[in-house]
Amino acid sequence: MKRATPAEALRHPNFAMGRVVTTNSATLVNKGLEVIEAHLLFDVPFDRIEVVVHPQQMIHSMVEFHDGSTIAQAGPPRMLVPIALGLSWPDRLADVDVPVDWTQAATWEFAPLDEQRFPAVALARRVGTEGGVAPAVYNAANEVCVDAFHDGAIGFLDIVDTIARVVDAHVGADLDASSVEGVLHADAWARDEARAVLARR
Q1: Using an 8 Å Cβ cutoff, are 5 and 150 in contact?
Q2: What Cα–Cα distance (Å) separates residue 137 from each residue in 62, 104, 167, 177?
Q3: pLDDT of 52-92, one tens digit each?
Q4: Are 197 and 170 in contact (CB under 8 A)?
Q5: Which long-range contacts (CB under 8 A, 24 or more apart) does 103-109 make?
Q6: pTM score, two decimals?
Q7: Which PANTHER family does this entry report, sorted A to Z (predicted)?
């Protein structure tokens, strides 16, 4: 991973999502952001949200019920249905994508997340728990780091390491989440701080 190149980070097996989101899929920053989203959108405590590695990307989410059963949302590894649902909610549009063919043999794999190799998720839980502008700082610092990585200025593992340094630094900064202007100020502060951290590397 230390020697991973930008071209390798963009070689996603199932999606073409652009430079930032595809790189975020390689670092798992995107999964960290999705953990924060799940917490905020569904009011689920962070300790009840688990991340599982599923290379085939056919299962998009699962909800476990208190009786021990699990309901999974399955579909092709594309964003057509989520986008259509976002546009048509609460209705579902017809024929948006091809459903899973359950008559065909297939193997779907699931594995626990290795948080030592992918620290971005634990960092996202931390900023999500902290709240305020911390998630905005995490996101803004990441975008600067992704650009630096693709420009050849830093290595792959430096992305999350730098985000963590910016998140640590924001604790003493005078940042306010009570207004849109305050969050935009935090975003700009995090970008400047990320560039300063990168300049000192």
Answers
A1: no
A2: 28, 45, 6, 11
A3: 999 999 998 899 999 999 999 999 888 899 899 999 999 99
A4: no
A5: 106/56, 106/58, 107/56, 108/54, 108/56, 108/58, 108/59, 109/54, 109/55, 109/56
A6: 0.89
A7: 1-DEOXY-D-XYLULOSE 5-PHOSPHATE REDUCTOISOMERASE, 1-DEOXY-D-XYLULOSE 5-PHOSPHATE REDUCTOISOMERASE, CHLOROPLASTIC
| Secondary structure string (H, E, C) spanning the chain | CCCCCHHHHCCCCCCCCCHHHHHHHHHCHHHHHHHHHHHHHHCCCHHHCCCEECCCCCEEEEEECCCCCEEEEECCCCCHHHHHHHHHCCCCCCCCCCCCCCCCCCCCCCEECCCCCCCHHHHHHHHHHHCCCHHHHHHHHHHHHHHHHHCCCCCCCHHHHHHHHHHHHHCCCCCCCCCHHHHHHHHHHHHHHHHHHHHCC
Q: Quick one: which of 136, 142, 123, 144 has its CA closest to 179?
A: 136
The neighbour count for residue 36, using CB atoms within 10 Å, is 21
Exposure of 53 in the CB half-sphere (CA atoms within 13 A):
13
Report percent pLDDT > 70 for the chain. Answer: 100
- Per-residue pLDDT tens for 10-47? 888 777 778 998 999 999 999 999 999 999 999 999 99
End-to-end CA distance of the chain: 19
